[in-house]
Give the backbone structure.
Amino acid sequence: MADRRINARRNFLKNSAGLAAFSMISGGVHASNASTLKVGLVGCGGRGTGAASQALRADKEVELVAVGDMFPDRLQGSLAQLKADGEIASRIKVSPENCFTGFDAYQKVINSGIDVVLLASPPGFRPAHIEAAIAAGKHVFAEKPVAVDAPGCRKVLEACRLAKEKNLAVVSGLCWRYDRPKRETMKRIHDGALGELHTLHTNYNVGSLWMKKRQPDWNDMEYQLRNWYYYGWLSGDHNVEQHIHSLDKCIWALKDEAPIAAYGLGGRQVRTGTDFGHIFDHHAVVYEFKSGAKIFSFCRQQDGCYSDVNDYFQGSKGHCNVMKHLITGPEAWNYRRDGSEIDMYQSEHNELFASIRAGKPINDGEWMTRSTLVAILGRMVTYTGKRITWDQATNSKEGLAPANLTLNDQKLPTPPVAMPGKTTFI
């Protein structure tokens, strides 16, 4: 993996050496092709640490100069891991004064003189972080999903519209869109290799994930933040936080068309203890489209069960196994690797920084927000047991975050587990 990343970086630098210099873009980045771009990281978990590493590998003139996290131990652990990587250690220039913790750490990172911010905190914070970054004129890498509720999606969409006006980059962590084999597969689907798509079946059926046992000195807020995956206001449930990758591939295949409605079922059958918050452990959703096409979507996080993470698309003249990049039918095709492919996580950062250097910043805002809302719609229908339309979901007024966000909260009750047929749509 290390060799692949080194080669990816060398290939990128070779390919981007001829990019024209640009003067000033509205985000406040004064840069020629050789100017240093200063990067800040918000959210120092595994994904954030990985994103920082990939950003530093994407462009030899990038420096990490500020980091922020809710907790000091997470922040210091991330910095230690990054500094242990000899290839990038010299460009980690984070002073103690630029290490920020707490709920306002993101704003302090944004205000620290950076050009690009990597947003990788729990998804519930993403809308506020994106909004603040773009308001301050910063280029953005935003991990998936970009919200956990419809009000958050609306905030992100508006911020990304402003980013276009300011000529700022917004690159999504929905990384399959930056994977060459997936791009080649989708191009053939869009060119008609399957004919008219009518049935899209997607699975993200895996075992259980991490869970952090509560420590005696953690109050309710700290416990929920450290165990964020199991609280809807922070993760959106795993149909949103994890399965969004699969749903995004389906929506991509359908040329980013939004569904007209969805219905489904789900529950909490195995992961029932209080350590697992209140989210479900399985969801099954049918998404309906104006053309008559349907997505049949399944996700499960239960140990000891059959696992499958794949997408199967059927059209009027062919079939596609997406993860195998295999099309059968009259236009049969299979992607053949030639060894030049690079890691998709690296690719998204390569393209982000190349677009900034070229003065033609990528803006993934519309499709990343649409795919996020598709995933949220799935949770809405499994929690309520209702058929919910796209327009209803888009205009939902349900905000999941607690009213007061402070680390001093001693009492932050776990929301009730949703009960289909009784939980109401808001």
Observations:
- The chain has two domains: 2-176+344-364, 180-339+371-394.
- The first strand starts at residue 37 and ends at 42.
- The chain has a mean pLDDT of 92.
- The radius of gyration is 21 Å.
